[in-house]
Design brief:
By secondary structure, this protein is an alpha/beta fold. It has eleven helices and seven strands.
Length: 300
């Protein structure tokens, strides 16, 4: 990342890792959504996550794996714990995330198998033909210098090995298309007000709008900084292998800050309402009104 963006991103994520997880507010934090919508779209089974699918079909038993943007709870830990990878090099720009990760494995049998590094993956020397697989989970959309990153990945992975990612690839800075705003507003208005109570303010959410650019940059200068460029650039550096989109084009923003109002495991009516939203987004994606903002992508 460019210096000031990387520094700001590291500071933001340091603070998050120090204070612990915030109150659930994201669509990915509700297991029902993950199981019944995302897993079904990616793997065809509510009980199989993208990560399990990737381990079975793409990572396989590997000697050395590189994880980009590991954070404090990266997939590299599970790759080693499940013996899918013998060794993992896990990189993140947040010193606090790396400290938490190192503390987690200190004194365990994984201590010698995972090398946590506080580095910028766009500039660090990772060597040539070193890794049997490269994996990233929701970190690429925080990267500014995608060209440098992809060139580094292409250089460090072995010929023919795979680059696996679970990623937000929608509009940069969350500047939704007009169609997404229109359909998002329609679906928001279709929800009973009890589902639209904002988790922080307690007010009823009434508008589906694009977030303010300035507020996004102030909150996290790296958020979705060049997300819309990820897929076009991937095609210039790598050969496509698989792409499994799973929507989120409306649901991500529609459910932000109101997802805690849904309790589908205990209230059947909540499950039914979520299923209605799922069906609507699927229909809009199928008909080409919207494009998926999230996807599991594999390239070679």
């Amino acid at each position: 990342m460019e210096g000031h963006v990387a520094a700001h991103a590291a500071s933001v994520w340091d603070d998050r890792f120090k204070t612990g997880p915030p109150r659930p507010r994201d669509w990915l934090e509700l297991p029902y959504i993950v199981n019944q919508y995302i897993n079904m779209a990616v793997t065809g089974s509510p009980d199989m996550s993208w990560f399990t699918f990737a381990c079975l079909h793409y990572v396989r038993p590997a000697e050395r794996v590189l994880e980009i943007g590991c954070g404090a709870n990266g997939v590299g830990f599970d790759l080693c714990r499940l013996d899918v990878a013998r060794h993992v090099v896990a990189i993140d720009v947040s010193p606090e995330a790396i400290r938490v990760s190192r503390d987690r494995i200190a004194g365990t049998h994984l201590e010698d198998r995972i090398d946590y590094r506080c580095e910028d993956v766009t500039t660090t020397d990772l060597g040539e033909d070193v890794f049997d697989c490269v994996i990233v989970n929701m970190a690429l959309h925080h990267m500014l210098e995608l060209e440098e990153l992809f060139a580094n990945v292409r250089r460090c992975k072995r010929p023919g090995s795979l680059f696996v990612m679970n990623e937000y690839v929608g509009p940069s800075r969350f500047q939704w298309t007009d169609a997404a705003v229109r359909e998002g507003q329609r679906l928001l208005e279709s929800l009973d007000e009890r589902y639209r109570i904002h988790g922080s303010t307690g007010e009823v959410v009434r508008t589906f709008t694009r977030p303010g650019y300035g507020a996004m940059v102030a909150g996290d200068a790296s958020e979705a900084i060049r997300s819309s460029a990820i897929e076009p650039l991937l095609s210039t550096y790598f050969e496509p292998v698989d792409r499994r989109p799973y929507g989120g084009t409306i649901l991500q923003w529609l459910l932000a800050d109101i997802v805690a109002n849904f309790d589908p495991e205990r209230r059947p009516e909540d499950a039914a309402e979520l299923e209605r939203l799922f069906a609507e987004e699927r229909r809009l994606l199928r008909n080409g009104v919207l494009q998926s903002n999230f996807a599991v992508i594999v390239v070679r």
